[in-house]
Amino acid sequence: MAKTSPLFECTACGARHPKAMGKCTGCGAWDTVQEVRGSLKRDLQRAGSAYAQSHYAGPVALPDVDVADTQRSPTGLVELDRVLGGGVVPGMVALLGGEPGIGKSTLLLQWAATAEGTVLYASGEESERQIKLRAQRLGAENPGIHLLAETDVRRIIEEAERMKPGLLLVDSIQTLFDPDFESSAGSVSQVRGCAAMLTRWAKTTSTPLVLVGHVTKDGGLAGPKVLEHLVDTVLAFEGDRHHHHRLLRALKNRFGAAFELGVFAMTEKGLVPAEGNPFFLDAEPRPGCAATVVLSGTRPMVVEIQALVAAAGLGIPRRTALGIDGPRLAMLCAVAERRGGVQLHDRDVYVNVAGGLEIEDPAADLAVIAALCSSAGGRLLAEKCLFMGEVGLTGEVRPVAQLPLRLQEGARLGFAAAAVPRLGLEGKSPLDLYPETSVERLRSKAWLKGVAEE
Predict the structure, then answer these.
(1) How far is CA 327 from CA 188, 265, 321, 408, 430, in A?
(2) Between residues 351 and 223, which one has the greater pLDDT?
(3) Contact 142, 113 (CB under 8 A)
(4) DSSP-assigned states of every residue in 373-441
(5) How many Cα atoms sit within 13 Å of 308 on the Cβ side?
(6) pLDDT at 116 over 90
(7) Cα(21)–Cα(307) distance, rounded to whole angstroms?
(8) What pTM was estimated for this model as a whole?
(9) What's the confidence (pLDDT) of residue 150?
């Protein structure tokens, strides 16, 4: 018999290598390439498309495809339904990731408590008693929930075949193992193989499946990237432990819009939908505070941008950003000084997004510059005014997506005016507008009022 050549895989990205090496050529990570033990042929077979292997019956004409069994079922949690696109689709496979202690198991248990029919909750991290105690605390003692403390993926599938549940929950995929493989639980081969087996079963039986996944120190989902490609929906559960709000984002969704956002509040009774707008404090006007509307998926949210401009104590000015991209803040500071005439080159600049929210929407650029100008001069901004617009290197204020939707959200929350890009304005607005074409001569803008009283 010919000798089997050793195989090495990266535990971070799953890339295969013919020999051991210190740095993975696929993702650039160090000390992540390890030897894979077990049958490579079985691994390759199991890593194929789970949906194709369970449903393959030859090519089908597009008009003949039956979609009658893809009706959505509400989960019972309003914010979760928003993120999923309206509810759960039969055979849907979702991957839920988040930091330890953020509330993934709490969300999973509340999902199980509001689900219709029988639910099989398989946990490799907690015992049945621990889950029972949490259910009592949350008031989620649904008699339809069946608990299974097991890490053998084949036993989980056997129990699921016997029970035929309406929903299968697995916490977490990194704790499962298949006895056919010699590698330990959590390795690339085990994670990929177990996820493929569970996904194949879910697609074959049209049973919704939810997998909980660990995250790395960088905040990304742990395990091979193929895990995210294998599932239909990738959900990221985020939040600051020092704030009681939790954000549920859809990073990928084959059955709905991606990047939708659900906002929960963590209480003694578990997760509840957040009331009002948790990211904007309606307080007295203060220098350095500007409000904007950002979009996450199709959800508009009013957030407060706070800026503080102070003398550079060490001679080297600092640029500190919390909640926005640091390089983008440095760029906006340069634009505000070069194009708008605000002196910042010898001053420290601190910018924070209130509420612990992280935003990537370029529509917040104008709000950042307005907050910088207000703080640098100690002047107040127009009361009940929003600032929305992308700012370029030449100082121009560029149009933003879904401006009417943003204005409607501002009007709903009681705002009276908005500084917006002049280009692209169409139709009537529910707010008084300050049309802007550039950020030149910032100190003379109509929305910049007098100096605040001490």
Answers:
(1) 34, 31, 9, 31, 34
(2) 351
(3) yes
(4) HHHHHTEEEPTTEEE--EE-TTSBEE--TTHHHHHHHHHHTT--EEEEESTT--S--SSEEEEESB--S
(5) 11
(6) no
(7) 47
(8) 0.78
(9) 94
Q: What is the mean pLDDT of the chain?
A: 86
Residue that the structure tokens 């009658």 belong to? 68
Cα gap 452→374, rounded to integer Å: 10
Residue 223's region, left for phi above 0, alpha for psi from -120 to 50, else beta, is: left
Q: Record the tokens describing residue 158, joined without a space.
A: 């056997």
Which residues, 6 or more positions from 60, have their beta carbon under 8 angstroms from its beta carbon?
none
Closest to 229 measured CA to CA, from 49, 55, 25: 49
Structure tokens at 129: 């008693």
Please state, in angstroms and rounded to a whole number, the distance separating the CA atoms of residues 454 and 452.
6
Question: Sign of the CA dihedral 31, 36, 40, 43?
Answer: negative
SS3 36: strand
User: How long, in residues, is the chain?
Assistant: 454
Instruction: Locate 132 and state its tokens.
Output: 């029972």
CA nearest to 229, candidates 221, 239, 241: 221
pLDDT for 121:
97
- pLDDT greater than 80 at residue 110: yes
CA distances from 344 to 164, 289, 371, 376, 404 (A): 65, 17, 13, 8, 33
Q: Which residues contact 351 (CB under 8 A, 6 or more apart)?
A: 305, 306, 307, 308, 320, 321, 322, 323, 324, 329, 368, 371, 372
Assign 303 to helix, strand or coil. strand
Residue found by looking up tokens 């949906």 in the block: 51
